[in-house]
Write a structure and sequence with these properties.
CATH architecture: 2-Layer Sandwich
Number of strands: 5
Oligomer: single chain
Shape: globular
CATH topology: HIT family, subunit A
Strand order of the largest sheet: 1-2-3-5-4
Helix content: 25-40%
Number of domains: 1
Bound molecules: guanosine-5'-monophosphate
Order of helices and strands: HEEEHHEE
């Protein structure tokens, strides 16, 4: 899938749409999700143009990959959720219900989060 430079996170990165920023460095921006699913719900995104985890893991440079995951750990520590725990989610593609086609990691925390997936049937 080609990268859509008008997706909402690309527009946040360009400063066209505001966000509630929690962290920024050379490679990464993190901000609060607009519709939080838990008391802490932070989105961590790379500044580079990657559609999803699949795209990021294939094309990002080693510096971008290391910077991204180090930042994600730091952001969780700074959010104060290390002791109680947190869940990382990254949706890729149709079956995962990925909405925004710019790679992002959800950090969810602040209450017991229940089973990993909704059980069906
Ligand atoms: P996905 O389903 O793609 O994994 O998650 C996209 C997330 O982006 C959703 O949790 C949604 O609430 C969040 N989101 C969508 N638009 C905006 C926005 O304009 N600002 C912020 N902060 N979050 C957004």
């Amino acid at each position: 899938m080609a990268y859509d430079s008008n997706n909402i996170f690309a527009r946040i990165l360009r400063g066209e749409i505001p966000c509630n920023k929690v962290y920024e460095d050379q490679h990464v921006l993190a901000f609060h999700d607009i519709h939080p699913q838990a008391p802490t719900h932070i989105l961590v995104i790379p500044k580079g143009a990657y559609v999803s985890f699949a795209d990021f893991s294939e094309r990002a440079t080693p510096d971008e990959i290391t910077g991204f995951f180090r930042a994600a750990g730091l952001i969780a520590r700074q959010a104060g959720v290390d002791a109680t725990g947190y869940r990382l989610i990254s949706n890729h593609g149709r079956d995962s219900h990925q909405d925004v086609p710019h790679f992002h990691l959800h950090i969810l925390a602040g209450r017991p989060l229940g089973p990993l997936l909704l059980r069906q049937g």
